[in-house]
Amino acid sequence: MATDDVGAVDDVVRRAQHGDVDAFEALYRAHSPAIYALCRRMVRTDGEALDLVQDIFVRAWERLTTFRGQSSLATWLHRLGVNVVLEHLRSTNRDAQRLIEGNDNTFGSRSPDAQIDARIDLDAALVQLPGGARTVFVLHDIEGYSHDEIAQMIGIASGTARAQLWRARRALMRLLDL
Questions:
Q1: What per-residue string of b and e applies to 26-63 under the rule 16 or more CB within 10 Å gives b?
Q2: Is the per-residue pLDDT at 132 higher than 80?
Q3: Which helix (H) or strand (E) holds 146?
Q4: Digit-coded pLDDT (tens) for 30-82
Q5: What Cα–Cα distance (Å) separates residue 177 from each residue in 44, 100, 117, 134?
Q6: Domains in the chain with CATH codes
Q7: d(CA 17, CA 118)
Q8: How far, CA to CA in Å, does 153 sit from each of 32, 59, 87, 147?
């Protein structure tokens, strides 16, 4: 990125920090696709992902004055997004935070009428994982967080994160017929 481009981005961020709605809209347009992709991988439905994107950008608007530029705005928004999604998953106290339990051999088996597209579509396969396994898989294998970081973020032991990742990978291999 050229120095002028960095300066223009910094200027848009500064204007948004001072309440310029048009500048914030430009930031939203630039960063919302990546934030949506993150949310969609971590939750089961498009609607839930879209709601989370809105929540993330509302919080970004409220907290933008705390952004100091020590990282890129994309990195700051990503971390804010991960935190909002994890908070959402915790607060709903539903299957999203349950760990895989039961017989490893039966979990992840496709039903006979499963569509062929599900075998080649990672996002469709991710939706079939229990939320806790999906969360660990997305944070580690897609987003690049370490086991220790994941353990701290979602409140489990590092070894549990490793075990859940292994089991999620195995289930995904079955779902994708790999």
A1: bbbeebbeebbebbbbbbbeeebbeebbebbbebbbee
A2: yes
A3: none
A4: 999 999 999 999 888 899 999 999 999 999 999 999 998 888 999 999 999 99
A5: 21, 19, 11, 18
A6: 3-92 (1.10.1740.10), 97-175 (1.10.10.10)
A7: 43
A8: 23, 18, 10, 10
Is residue 84 within 8 Å of 150, Cβ to Cβ?
A: no
Question: Exposed/middle/buried for 141, CB within 10 Å: 0-12, 13-18, 19+?
Answer: middle
| pTM, two decimal places | 0.63
The answer to whether 39 and 52 have CB atoms below 8 angstroms apart is yes
| 174 three-state secondary structure | helix
Q: Cα(120)–Cα(164) distance, rounded to whole angstroms?
A: 22
